[in-house]
Amino acid sequence: MELTIEEIHQRKELIAEIEIGVPSNLLLLAHIADFIRDSLIDAPSVLAIHLQEARSHAKKVLQSYSELFASVQPERIERASENSYLKFLEKFQEEFLFGDARPSTIELSNLYKKTMTFLEEYT
Predict the structure, then answer these.
(1) Torsion region of 42: left, alpha or beta (phi above 0 gives left; psi -120 to 50 gives alpha)
(2) pTM
């Protein structure tokens, strides 16, 4: 099935509307879920995109958390470069992109658990 330029444009507009109206924590979880699903069905072409989007939304979650506590408890502010989950995602992405094998079910389970821990802590 080939898409016309108009259909592609409409889909991009819909994605932009979703990103504006849906909280970053839900988008992060959606991209991680998509990554896990596509890993299990061996759809490698979109896996890197899911991880990039997940990292982007994780940064937004962390930024929102930091903005919330910036004036009240500045000691709770954590830079993205210091966040253990973002470091984990970066390492996971590097290993996945430069490695030959698909992530194992243990690695996917660990990715899910770390994502849920991050969301529990920062939302």
Answers:
(1) left
(2) 0.77
